[in-house]
Amino acid sequence: MTGRMRTTLLLAPAGTWFLVMLLLPLTVVLIFSFGERAPAGGVVPAFTFEQYANLPARWTAFKNTLTLAPVGTLASLLIAYPLAYFLAVKASPKWKTILLVLVIVPFWTSILIRSYAWIFLLGGRGIPALLEWVGIEGVRLINTPFAVLVGIIYGYLPLMVFPIYVSLDRLDKRLLEASSDLGATRWNTFRQITLPLSIPGIATGCMLVFILLMGEFLIPALLGGGKVFFVGNALVDLFLQSRNWAYGSAVAVTLVIVMLITVTVYMRLINRLGATREDVSIM
């Protein structure tokens, strides 16, 4: 058996899974997007661009998604990085394990239950009532973009923390000691060594959070109260309620294209930053 044949056989299961579970469903959705809505719902085979011409009708959903998904990703990064840095570099082995468990604990509960908890906290009997008690009246948090952003950060923060933590935990501490011995300040050490070497963790965490947020629908539905609509909510409405599969497929295809463009640009940026990381490693 030749090496090429052996490689083909080893890759065949994964390739088959990729074809059946990813490419075929996307192909079906792409075909549906050129169809028309059947009178009783579903799709009628056709070849028309009418569904794509109607995409501006869902502009609000795309605007909310393309605004809150990047903002939520960036906010999660700004919160997760100091926490991951403390866990990997500063925390003692005993406390490191305890704190890592505390980061995981929210995942032991359904996102639905956690979102309902935030509905209470951000609702009239929660934080607004506390603010009113101290003299700050008229604050409305629930059913706002802020509420959705809070739910996003809370729900996806662990997915940002762990990749960054792994990247920082593997950091050679001798590099930090050498930088200190050579007279570099803590800020310069962080900027020139720690941050460049943690770029792979940052890239992985941002990718995980951003891709999942682009398809999110539960958090906007619960904390947004139907006033903060994501593309995921639009797809649920189009496929399950109005049963306009053709239009829903066009929206889904457009979302996939937007994600592919965004991820491609993002990966090119990360590759450029990776050159800096390699220079640091060589030094």
Account of the 3D structure:
The chain has 283 residues and is mainly α. It has a domain at 63-93 and 101-228: Orthogonal Bundle (MetI-like fold). Helices cover 76% and strands 0% of the residues. It has helices spanning 3-33, 50-53, 59-90, 93-104, 111-122, 127-133, 145-169, 173-181, 186-197, 199-214, 218-223, 231-241, 245-282. α1 (3-33) crosses α13. It is globular and about 75 Å long. The protein starts with a helix and ends with a helix. 27% of the residues are buried. The mean pLDDT is 88.
Which helices and strands occur, and which strands form pairs?
Elements: H1 3-33, H2 50-53, H3 59-90, H4 93-104, H5 111-122, H6 127-133, H7 145-169, H8 173-181, H9 186-197, H10 199-214, H11 218-223, H12 231-241, H13 245-282
Helix pairs in contact: 1-13, 3-7, 3-10, 3-12, 7-10, 8-9, 9-13, 10-13, 12-13
Keywords:
283 residues; mainly alpha; MetI-like fold; 76% helix; globular; transmembrane; MetI-like; MetI-like_sf
Mean pLDDT: 88
Question: Regarding CATH, which class of one domain?
Answer: Mainly Alpha
Largest sheet: none
Low-confidence parts? none
> How many individual helices?
13
What is this entry, summarized?
This protein has helices at residues 3-33, 50-53, 59-90, 93-104, 111-122, 127-133, 145-169, 173-181, 186-197, 199-214, 218-223, 231-241, 245-282. With 283 residues, the chain is mostly helical. It has a domain at 63-93 and 101-228: MetI-like (MetI-like fold).
